[in-house]
Amino acid sequence: MPKFKRKREARVTLNYTQRGFRLKEGRLHLAGGIVVRLVRSRQLPKRPSSVRVYQDATGAWYASFVVARVSEALPETGRVIGVDWGVKDIATTTSDAHDLPHPQHGRTTAQKLARYQRMMSRRRPKRGQAASKGYREARRQTAKLHRKVAAQRQDTGRKWAKRVVTDHDEIAVEDFRPKFLAKTTMARKAADATIGATKRTLLEMARKRGRIVHLINPAHTTMACAQCGARAKHAPPLSERTYTCTACGAVSPRDKNSARVMLVRAGLQPG
Ligand SMILES: [Zn+2]
Model's pTM, two decimal places? Predict the structure, then answer.
């Protein structure tokens, strides 16, 4: 049966607006005379309107500030790009310089993670018993690893999105919808999550920088030819990595063909 989180187990979140907080000499002054020193990830562009103070699963504390967004349009480039999502390469695009291979961050930490998870199950407290010190430590280490992988993924995704948005005026993106409910492997589920997050980052950044985004319905993109528009009768098996058109004879890597189809469907001219 699902278990509800008891209040004493839930982590703390504190919200402060306008008068509830003040920033002074690198310190955060909160209502009630609480003063905390901040380790900043970056400078704030403007005076924040509110702050949320919270603790994550590793026990670390964060202060998250809300600042009115300053939108900066980028200079025109005269270039367009088509983006196709996948498992092996997270993004295949019509520009070879902008493909995004699958980040392997998860794999290197997977062994460590498995170790801590085994530790957790060994030390799991019995029903009605308080968690032991060893159990809580294993749980903290697990949470820390999860946080590290998530941070690395986010960083890679942001850097890629920034490059794509800076170098192109219009972006034709496959409107990927994760299929979490389908019977799939863990690897596929993880890939779905990574693709979803990368897509969100790309759309957010494009909107912020005044770029035009076309969301393309992915139906039949693997069956269509980007050169002549002909559609194959059957979807080629996933193991087939090249697309060969039966109508015009064009041959191209499967994912590159799909990325090009995105452009064509958006009504854009490649190149
Ligand atoms: Zn063709």
Answer: 0.75
